Amino acid sequence: MTAVLLSLATFVSTLGGGLFALRFRDRLHYLLSFTAGVLLGVVAFEVLPEVFELAQQHTLDATGAMVALVVGFLFGGGAVRAVRRIALPARGAAFFFAVTRWAR
Hints:
Layout: H1 2-23, H2 28-57, H3 63-91, H4 93-99
């Protein structure tokens, strides 16, 4: 019974989020940015402490997980900046609007 209630709650929250995104379609990029931030927050504040706890139980060094998180975050941000700064202006404004047309 609990699984059915949890799946129903998941369905309702997903439906609500989709309807919210459709209602504010002109601000979809803000919603996607917020969602990405929430996911990063979940990883940083929920999953990583468990990684450290498990690493301590098994006498492993968890520094690699933290370094991977920081490097991945910086690499992702750098990739986005590179695409915005190099690829999009080189192909012109028409290409930019064709790529971002779905966000309107």
